[in-house]
């Protein structure tokens, strides 16, 4: 996955977000070892100290843990990963609802529309 | 010793012009710092003093804890703004030349980078385009295992793909024991790989901060802030 970094926000905060996304989407599954700081920095094309800062912060939040000699790992706590995944989903939905509101749809109308589209999609899926 | 470069009230006057005006600055080891400023702001003057090519009018500068001289030149890998290489030499000859000159020169690294950038080591410098010459110079500078790298406008003439490779090389060569000072106008390209930036204007330092401090406080990129601070 390419690292998409915006220019108007702190880089370390964006790195934290993207690493979280990599974890919840299963690129780095629960309990796996992360690449080295240097490799991750090179892949994201960022300063290694900035990457280090993002990883240290995620460690503070309990999403990663270090083992002194063998490197850094994703937490074994699947519930925690699930919770972060939910947080992301809630964020996406909030953003979506805001856009729908701007288009003039209230909550009920939005839900009705979503239902219709999902039904249509599943019908189309059956036909294929 | 934690700082690669330390300046105290560093001043350089030329006839009719103050190029540096009481600059105090510390660049810690393990950091990549961007030296940013408009044309004629004093960037190259500062860099030349770091490398012992100019002597300060007043104030003091320490590079790796010493005054610039033979000992610091061993520790500093410097990419000047202009080429000083001999046009008639081939890349192979230059690599041998650098290998003889600097004990910390890593030939394998140089050949590896040449290959990645598709440069034939048998080619002579005078047959090369401006951009390719710049790449060769940068490869020579980056192939040293130095304690301090000072790059004066390193990526100005190279194409965007090579620029990415060069920035990638800088990241993968990063060492906690080495520092890097990069002067450039291509801020957007480099800001992601910098720890901090120093803004210099008419010989004085007007801002010294980390990239994320600037983004946090100003909600804008270093590039956007530069355009604002130095608006013409």
Descriptors for this entry?
heterodimer; A: 128 residues; mainly alpha; Arc Repressor Mutant, subunit A; two-stranded antiparallel ribbon; 5 helices; 63% helix; B: 232 residues; alpha/beta; Rossmann fold; 6-stranded mixed beta sheet; 3-stranded antiparallel beta sheet; 9 helices
SS-derived structural category of chain A: mainly alpha
What portion of the residues of chain A fall into strands of 2 or more residues? 5-15%
Shape verdict of chain B: globular
Q: How big is the Rg of chain B?
A: 17 Å
CATH fold title of the largest domain in chain A: Arc Repressor Mutant, subunit A
Query: CATH topology of chain B, which one?
Result: Rossmann fold
- Tally of discrete structural domains of chain A: 2
Percent helix of chain B: 25-40%
- Reading off the top of the CATH hierarchy, the class of chain B is best stated as Alpha Beta
Report the helical percentage of chain A.
55-70%
Q: CATH homologous superfamily of the largest domain in chain A? A: Winged helix-like DNA-binding domain superfamily/Winged helix DNA-binding domain
State the separation between the terminal residues of chain A, measured CA to CA. Answer: 29 Å
- DSSP helical segment count of chain B: 9
What structural category do the secondary elements of chain B indicate? Answer: alpha/beta
- Average pLDDT number of chain B: 92
- The DSSP helix count of chain A reads 5
- Would you tell me the overall average pLDDT of chain A? 91
